[in-house]
Amino acid sequence: MNGLVCxxxxxxxxxxxxGTWCICKEGVSDAALQKTLDYACGAGADCTLIHPNWGCxxxxxxxxxxxxxxxxxxxxxxxxxxxxxxxxxxxxxASDPSYTGCAYPASASSYSxxxxxxxxxxxxxxxxxxxxxxxxxxxxxxxxxGLCVSRVACSFLCG
Length: 159
What we know:
Keywords: Cell membrane, Disulfide bond, Glycoprotein, GPI-anchor, Lipoprotein, Membrane, Signal
Protein name: PLASMODESMATA CALLOSE-BINDING PROTEIN 3 like
Subcellular location: Cell membrane
Strand content: 5-15%
Number of strands: 4
Order of helices and strands: HEHHEEEH
Number of helices: 4
Radius of gyration: 18 Å
Structural class: mainly alpha
Organism: Actinidia chinensis var. chinensis (Chinese soft-hair kiwi)
Signal peptide: 1-19
């Protein structure tokens, strides 16, 4: 019974995690949002996922791409005050803007886990770019890592 309660507790913590994201404001012209998008991508944001065939390309709108880019910039700057303003075209939110196929990380460290593309072969970020992974060992490794994490979390949380 304790194990079941522990698993429920860990799952609840995973589902109801909080965070802060940066998104582009509604009601701002596409021209202004495009300038913000260009600035964020040129100033260190990871804009890989908003390219065609990647998980965050659709919806293919300036505002959607802008939001992903400013969030990347904001997270990479450690959510520093003022790093989500972009001449008043962006704002912070406590509502996760992620959607199916596109995860908006809530911290700089979570960026490496959010990379997906429309291909069925997984990729990982490396210093030389993206590296294609063999799916079979990757799935096994992820399952094993998940089991280890849940066992450690349950031991820590539930004694």
